[in-house]
């Protein structure tokens, strides 16, 4: 299973992105912040609500220099068909990676083997290709893009400000902490 500060493993995949089929590898995720967003399957119930929420917040992620990559064990052809037939999915401008062999899904440790589907896994990857945030939800629990935005902002802040950490519920512009002996037992 993927772990915090581990480097993403090599992969090669086809994706549907802005009306085209494109080839992506782990190298495409390096050099910028990335969110790899696994979901169980196209043409389902909770999945389109999550992907639509990401689509609605995509411009904000882009302003932060973050690319979103949605991944399921469907093919890139299925992603195109879903994109073309659903108003919600039709809003998506980020790459939708097909992982029919399950290689990427297994690399990140979110494969439900008996179903051949991905768990609801979210991974935030820094520009060096190292995982900084991992979140895995049960199948019936949808994720919230605004909360993901907050977490990515915190990860970017901590990366840019060594020696500082973000407390619970931290929002951009709020006070951070500088861990020291003086803080022990005072918070």
TrEMBL record:
Keywords: Antioxidant, Cytoplasm, Disulfide bond, Oxidoreductase, Peroxidase, Redox-active center. Gene3D superfamilies: Glutaredoxin (3.40.30.10). It comes from the Bacteria. Its main location: cytoplasm. One of its GO terms (molecular function) is NADH-dependent peroxiredoxin activity. Pfam families: 1-cysPrx_C, AhpC-TSA. It catalyses: a hydroperoxide + NADH + H(+) = an alcohol + NAD(+) + H2O. Belongs to the peroxiredoxin family. AhpC/Prx1 subfamily. Homodimer; disulfide-linked, upon oxidation. 5 homodimers assemble to form a ring-like decamer. Thiol-specific peroxidase that catalyzes the reduction of hydrogen peroxide and organic hydroperoxides to water and alcohols, respectively. Plays a role in cell protection against oxidative stress by detoxifying peroxides. This is Alkyl hydroperoxide reductase C.
């Amino acid at each position: 299973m993927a772990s915090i500060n581990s480097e993403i493993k090599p992969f090669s995949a086809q994706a549907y992105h802005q009306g085209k089929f494109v080839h992506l590898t782990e190298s495409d995720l390096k050099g910028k912040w990335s969110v790899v967003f696994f979901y169980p399957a196209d043409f389902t119930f909770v999945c389109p609500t999550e992907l639509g929420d990401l689509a609605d917040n995509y411009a904000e992620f882009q302003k932060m220099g973050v690319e979103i990559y949605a991944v399921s064990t469907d093919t890139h052809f299925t992603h195109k068909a879903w994109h073309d037939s659903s108003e919600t999915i039709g809003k998506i401008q980020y790459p939708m990676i097909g992982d029919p062999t399950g290689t990427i899904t297994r690399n990140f440790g979110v494969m439900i083997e008996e179903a051949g589907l991905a768990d609801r896994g979210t991974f935030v990857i820094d520009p060096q290709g190292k995982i900084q945030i991992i979140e895995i939800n049960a199948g019936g629990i949808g994720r919230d893009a605004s909360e993901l935005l907050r977490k990515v902002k915190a990860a970017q802040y901590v990366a840019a400000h060594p020696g500082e950490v973000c407390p619970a519920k931290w929002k951009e512009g709020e006070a951070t902490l500088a861990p020291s002996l003086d803080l022990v037992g005072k918070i």
